[in-house]
Amino acid sequence: MKLRETHLPRPIRFIDLWDISGFRMKVYGIAYRRDLPRNKFIRAAKKIAEQRLAESASKTNNYGAGYIGIHDGRGSAFVFIDWWADENELHHHVYVFPADKADDIQYVTPTGLTACVWDMRVMSFERDAWFTSVLANPAGPDLEAYINARLNEDV
Predict the structure, then answer these.
(1) What does the alpha-carbon distance between residue 152 and residue 82 come to, in Å, rounded to a whole number?
(2) By residue range, what is the domain housing residue 106?
(3) Tens of pLDDT along 141-155?
(4) What is the pTM of this model?
């Protein structure tokens, strides 16, 4: 196996907490050779999240909490929108943009594409935060603790 290039760490940063359609969504940025995703992808992600949450999330037994990843990658940009439902289930939706166009989005969840290794780091952190704060919390479910658990690291 030959890799296209040597691994360079990518920053994963908590960007903001968005209130969308009754959901509090933690927003993360992941970027290839830059500090944060470009603003055009952040703006596009918010619009997509508003549509997805209004269309799908309200039909689930959800808790009004989840996260969004905006990954400004090497050849494409990715957005994933995830929310928690039925105590321990994650709803996951993925979108892809060409690297230079924030208005040419494709919904790729039906293709089976789930995540890249950097996206999976966010998913892993969020799984652990949900498990610790909500499911296995000795004091009982603490949604605020989940919302306040945030990932910032280079991977």
Answers:
(1) 18
(2) 11-149
(3) 999 999 999 999 999
(4) 0.95
